[in-house]
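User: Some background: our group keeps a shared notebook of sequences we're curious about, and every so often someone picks one and asks for a predicted structure to add to the entry. Today it's my turn. The entry only has the sequence so far, pasted here. Could you supply the structure so I can complete it?
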Amino acid sequence: MVTVSTRPQPGSRVTLEIEVPAAEVDRHFATAYRHVAERTKVPGFRPGKAPRHVIDRFVGHGSVVAEAIDHLVGEAYDSALDQAAIIPIDQPEVEIDFASVSEGSSVRFTATVAVRPEVTLGAYTGYPFDLEPIEVTDEQIDAVITDLREQQATLRPIDERGAAEGDVVAVKFIGTIDGEPFEGGSADRLPLVIGEGRMVPGWEDQLVGMRIDETKGFEVGFPDDYRVEELRGKRAHFEVTLLDMRERILPDLDDEFAKSVSDGQTIEELRAEIRDALQHRAEDEARHRFADRIIDFAVSNATVELPEVMIANEIEIMRDELGNRLAAQRIGMQQYLEMARQTPEELAAELREPASRRVKSLLVLSAIAEKEGIDAGDEEIDTEIRDQLERYSDEPRLAEYLGSRRGRSYLRMTLRNRKLVDELIGRATEQATEQATGEPATESATTNESE
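Assistant: Of course. Here's the predicted structure to add to the notebook entry:
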């Protein structure tokens, strides 16, 4: 078993002084000789069967020493971390005297590594805000029912009147700026709903009153913040022909409609079903907003010096998250950077501030979790790893990261922070119930007996 002592260093770093006993050194030399022999073709010997003195002469004893050091440093460092209960946040800087490494002798080396910094906690309970009360209104229910009716609507061709807001039309148009066509400014048959705001502001208003086969010319201006930079602030002339027009016929609001869109048998049951769904969604959203405010409150009251390596790692994580979102839209990172007119360095600089906020939040919540005695076990971490690997099965870098000590440490921190926030929300909810009713809340798993 290795022996280890630690020396704190400035900047949230620790130096581990590690000694590997002679018996362990000999074991690693035996492994090194076997590995070198297996991958070295020595004339007159089968793979892996050449004796040590032949291996030394054929490949050089230095190659064996390097292989032994590689094995013993990695294993001894992991053992030392466990003994010293240190969770590193970066790869170590190892110093070892190669000349001192030999069979039959112990080996000493140092490993200096960045560790999680100390956090000075401030207030993280007794919030000056409450969980928002939830009220589902009849207007919200009516809006959902209207959406459902529009989804069930049928389209009836019309030609006896002019176009009106809400009509589904098909138009042909040609747009020019200073008499010249521009990219994206024309279409042979474009379907749209008048009033939905799909086109440039004011464009759809010009269709109101038009009849089928009628052609109309008009001018509209592109907004100063239009998505196509070359068109911002410019005025364009359009010649538009109305090709087709239909009005939406909504189904009657009766029990038959309720049966067609839900498990309910009546409109009253449909409204109750919608109210329940809206209530649950609103409660989830309010809980998430409350959790964000709890985190912001705790973080703003805490003090911590953020290690540069943690910020850099978080920037990489955020860049990978962005890459995954872009991939879902079939957009490559290089394509995105060209569209955003950014270099990779400029993207990293843009992500630095939100990455720093995330790092501080993780560190502060971890410090609170330790104070509160909240943790995540190996089983929970293994489950989370399996879930992430299933979701991102085509990300080999993620699999490698999650299988590393650093990856498991990060997941453990994330999971226990999630449990902590649930705990803090539970306490705040209980306290709010007590204040509202004047009676103690029912004891639950969120009760902190030390309070």
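Suggested note for the entry: Residues 443-451 have pLDDT under 50 and may be disordered. The chain has three domains: 3-114, 154-249, 267-437.
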